Amino acid sequence: MYDNQLTQIAADITTKSAVLFLGSGFSRGCKSKGSPTGLPTAAGLRDILSKMLETDGSSYSLEDLSEHFAIVKGQPALYETLVEHFAVNEIGPQMAAFIGLPWWRIYTTNFDDAAEKCLASLQIQSVTMDLDHDANKQIPPSSIIHLNGAVATTNASNLRDKIRLTASTYWDERIQQSGWLQRFHRDISQAKCVVFVGYSLFDVDIAKLLRANPELSSKTYFIDSPSQDLIKDTKLRPFGTVIHTGFERAAETILEVMPGLTPVEDVYFTSFKEITPPAEIREFDAEDARRFLTIGAGLEDVAFLESNARRALACDREIVEVMLEQVKRGAARHLIVGKIGNGKTVASLLFAARLRGEGYRVFEFVRRTERMATEIATIAAMGRACIIVENGFGHTEQLQMISENAGKSVVVVSTARTSAFELRGSEMRTLLGPEYRRYSVDTLRSPERTQLADALQKLGFFGKYSGKEGRLPELIDTWGNDIRSLVLKLFEENDVGRVFREQIAKLEHNDARSILVLYFLLVVAEARADVSTADDLLSISTHPIVEKYSELFRDFFDLHDGDKIEARSSVVGEFCLKRVFKGHEIVDVLIRVADQQKGKTYADDESWPILLQFMRFGFIEPWLGASDKPVLLKRYYERLRTNSFYLRNPHFWLQYAIAMMSIGNYDFAKTYLDNARSRADQIPRYNYRHLDNHTARYYLESRARDPRDLRDYFAVFLKATSTLISEFRTENQANYTARVCKYLAEFCYRANPTFSVSDRTEAIRRTKLLISHLNSRRGKDQDGLLKDALGATEQALMILNGEYVANPVRGNDNDFLQADGSQFG
């Protein structure tokens, strides 16, 4: 009856990408000293403890009963009882052969060592892992991961720390804090199939995880006893296919069909997915165009359309032709740079489509897994292939690994936001190699701009803005060459923005609004998060709420591939955060996320970069209105400072100082800069680069803009310029330092009258030295980015020489505040 399902499981096992999860039902065929007829289940262990306590324990949970047992009989007695019943001395038939199959990963909530004994009988050395092992490190082959602990790694003195059994240990947060639940979620999301043997979903953490990810049910199987339990079936069936054969019969069938199956090795990709043309391509209409430009739907369809249709909707971007020509000349590493929403993804997909036409296979990097090195080698062996990495600065280690190991026959394409590249561009020579090519999508050529405008008018896409009497030509004139600016403008003036507001207004549940805000924040932060990560950040089970408002959420997000939160359009995220939600709502969500870290001393690999990004002033500031910004900033950072998780980090105090400078509160800014430095001093080999630059900026800006009469101008000038000169001498890329130079003209305008002749002579010497440093960096990749800094410094020199008397225009603070936070913690 279940032969087809068991054969499918066998086929999936041959891919070496199947996850096995063992419950107590698996071990019932084993024997131990205390249980010679079979190891006990949870109910059986409860009966054993009840008998030893000489009480009726049927009305108590196992964790409560074992807690009482440890108090009455003592922890050593509980340990001896567990060893007596769960230290296996005989395994059942078929068990060793079944465990010895090429499973990708083996998890269990059992305390026993049955799986280890199975591998030992096959002369395979196993590794027993529990919650004390680092969940983020590579898992060795033949590892058995015990999520509730194992008698094999326990003794009488560490029982409470190692075994999740008693009430005080089972309900603690060790499993959440260990990172193993997140690791388990990643593994089953990436697996070809997941097989539970003898498992009843007794463990609430595993049950919650499966409940939050219903899409896993199509590849999840529960091998259960032949006697069907309707209540148990009702519990299991929503999460997968229940196979009522019992373990022995299921194992026998799988082992029987395995020899006849052709082993499949290294063709099932977990770190990459192949980009292929859609099964059916049709011509786009006006509604398709609206969805494409506003929520990014149909990107792959657009990429693979015939040339005329593609040109009408996405423009025949010149960079695609240039990139293709460079590939033909032998260039193998490429970087596409652009502002948020300006078409980096579309350009990369258009390029991918052209490469496919040239016979290349195209893959997109999805996530790092343990198979990544093998998969890169597999792609490299294909010869003509391409790998696309979205947000290269968010995946620096992986991008470098791909670039270095894929070989020159594999074309590697990365994307990066303009702001990130301006600050970290020199890293790309390390990540992609010195011969990489860079292309910008921020500027449309005039023909491209005309193509897009004509196509929109012909499609009637913007209603009253189209046609001879429409205002589209007028908007294009003000829009210039920036796609994102045009779309945001049309959101404001057209029905699209109104529709978004009306849709979001339908959210009656406050948690639903919070979830949507968090999802948008994750998108604009370019965080590759999934629903379980969002659950952890907000401490909300998001799935039921998202399901209730599924039509709305799926208009904005593609929730697929293991529930990864993937926005259809980052421009929509920016629009909604700036124009639909209020600043206090966004700060409330950020505070809620921060509050979830209370009592923690660390963050896992998935949450860490998100928390880091959310703490940055440069990230928070755009969503706050000018009138309420001072109050909201103070409220947010004051809430964070009550939490030791943030309090100990120099980067938190640096961001708080930057926020205070933005609202002109320089006294607090100085205090928080000092706090940052004192905490940085406690961290070995801390890089003071950002802290030094912002301290120099504080000195120049506070003295230039604080209305109080401060008379230490020359001492401040010496401190600030000493930092700037030192940074220029030691840093290969000093864009942060260049941004500080933009404050020199303002400072010198106010300070110059107080300088003595000798002060002014030294100030002129230092300013000339800074101009020399700035000039020496011109002509490199970041040439245009230094123009404002050089202009302000030359203006400062003119002021010092008495050649310039007008009050200089202030520097752009926001340009400077794009700190990447690399020194967090």
Question: How does this structure look, described?
Answer:
The chain is an alpha/beta fold. The chain has 45 helices and 17 strands. It has a seven-stranded parallel β-sheet. It has a six-stranded mixed β-sheet with strand order 10-12-13-14-11-15, sandwiched between helices. Strands 2-3 form a two-stranded antiparallel sheet. Helix 27 packs across helix 31 (570-580) and helix 37 runs parallel beside helix 39. The longest helix has 20 residues, at 757-776. The model is unreliable at 304-314 and 812-825 (pLDDT under 50).
Strand-helix topology:
Layout: H1 3-14, E1 18-22, E2 31-32, H2 42-53, H3 62-72, H4 75-86, E3 88-90, H5 95-99, E4 105-108, H6 114-121, E5 127-129, E6 143-146, H7 159-162, H8 167-170, H9 174-178, H10 180-190, E7 193-197, H11 204-211, E8 220-224, H12 230-236, E9 241-244, H13 246-257, E10 272-275, H14 286-295, H15 299-303, H16 307-314, H17 318-328, E11 333-338, H18 344-357, E12 361-365, H19 372-381, E13 385-389, H20 396-405, E14 410-417, H21 418-424, H22 427-431, E15 437-440, H23 446-459, H24 472-479, H25 483-493, H26 495-505, H27 510-524, H28 531-538, H29 542-548, H30 550-556, E16 557-560, E17 564-567, H31 570-580, H32 583-595, H33 607-615, H34 617-620, H35 629-640, H36 644-647, H37 650-662, H38 666-680, H39 689-705, H40 713-730, H41 735-741, H42 744-751, H43 757-776, H44 787-800, H45 813-816
Parallel strand pairs: 1-4, 1-7, 4-6, 5-6, 7-8, 8-9, 11-14, 11-15, 12-13, 13-14
Antiparallel strand pairs: 2-3, 10-12, 16-17
